[in-house]
Predict the structure.
Amino acid sequence: MFSFKYDDDVSLALPSPDKDSELLYALIESSRANLCQWLPWANQLHSAEDEKNFLQTTLSHFGTSNSLNCVIRYRNQPVGMISFNRINKEHRHAEIGYWLGNQWHHKNIMHRDVTALLTIGFTEYNLHKVIINVDINNDASNHVAQKLNCHLDGTKRDDILYSNGKFADMNEWTLLRSEWENRG
């Protein structure tokens, strides 16, 4: 099974649907109000079985190299997920998505996990560019991209439709392989 240890506290691993689905669904349920602000899929999961089906789908996408979805483990406990969505092999870029349960915010977990996924993307997947799309009002996620010295390519107007029927503008942050290799 694929896993990547970032430090003594933080690691990424492919999901085990039977083992992880109930714990991740409980995190989603307890964090739903916050997650729904930024992630349209959060209102579409209604049970641990829905989460299990999603995790099984992510494993099949991993098998075809179309995406990489990992469980974020903090001190060996699942606390959220991070992924390369839509890996574009032809143009060698991928988009990162991520979420944490509310109780795990403000512990520098996401910065370390995105750093780990960038390492995997640039060294194992031979990506040229990684993209992070963030709602302009999501201060925490915009801060993650800024802290990683990603470049703000621009703001895409009315780029995402939330379940409340409202469109939102999205910041597009990118990091090139050369920038990653030359970081200080």
Notes: The first helix runs from residue 17 to 38. The longest strand covers residues 77-88.
